[in-house]
């Protein structure tokens, strides 16, 4: 099984990178991509805990925003971690997420919801990418709801009055940076409309011109019809299709390997990367 999109506590997942590797092995995964939000800080620990039978594709899920304010997530895999400009964009995004969290908290406080930055940061592993899920965890800890999902539904969704965006590159810029760093770019869950507005089908053309290699077709937030439509789109555009769990540990219901990538698609994708191959433990 090939699962190309997972998170750890380096962003808003709940497993450490070592735990993720162990669970992937136990789940029968053969190729796993580590794709924390806007960070590669988990790469070292994950590679260190690798065992024979599992290949590790190192990557990140880059938060992007279109010029008209639509949130897009871009998976970058197998890119060179020393590419300065790409790392600078990730660092800028991570930093900006703190100021943005302050604004979200201020809006909530104004509305009478009692939550503080200290409580949110208490939910964050050291050096991890801060996100709304950590705020949700802090609110769950206060007894305001039972789960992240419930908090997102009530207060933290993209159309909520408390929503504030953070600095993000455009999808085209992120794709170009991933490609310049020798990696491959796959747009994550492009039709997951539960999360807010999604990009038009026409915009995929512009992404392919920027170098997009594939589309994440098989994802739990896509309907059966959307999977059919996206399969036709990847055919028409001459790019690849992937499937993945978007595993977040206990942070979401998503189970490792619940959606997977076909071996021929992965082989073609990996062959497009020029900076690095998967990490293997002999
Ligand atoms: P942020 O990056 O801070 O804008 O937060 C977005 C993250 O929140 C995404 O990576 C999702 O994994 C997570 N998220 C979005 N909706 C939900 C939800 N309903 N329940 C739990 N997590 C969610
Ligand atoms: Zn996440
Ligand atoms: Fe995502
Ligand atoms: Fe994700």
Q: How does this structure look, described?
A:
With 282 residues, this protein is α/β, with parallel strands linked by helices. It has two domains: 194 residues, Metal-dependent hydrolases (TIM Barrel, Alpha-Beta Barrel), CATH 3.20.20; 60 residues, DNA polymerase, domain 1, CATH 1.10.150.650. 38% of the residues lie in helices and 15% in strands. The protein contains ten helices and seven strands. Helix 5 crosses helix 6. The longest helix is centred in the middle third of the chain and has 27 residues. The protein starts with a strand and ends in an 11-residue tail after the last helix. The protein binds adenosine monophosphate, zinc ion and fe (iii) ion (2 copies). The site of zinc ion has 5 residues, from loops.
Q: Largest beta sheet, briefly?
A: 7 strands, mixed
Give the fraction of residues assigned to helices: 25-40%
Q: What is the fold named in CATH at topology level of the largest domain?
A: TIM Barrel
Radius of gyration: 18 Å
> Which CATH architecture of the largest domain is right?
Alpha-Beta Barrel
What fraction strand? 5-15%
Structural class: alpha/beta
How many H/I helices? Answer: 10
In brief, what are we looking at here?
The chain has 282 residues and is of the alpha/beta class. It has ten helices and seven strands.
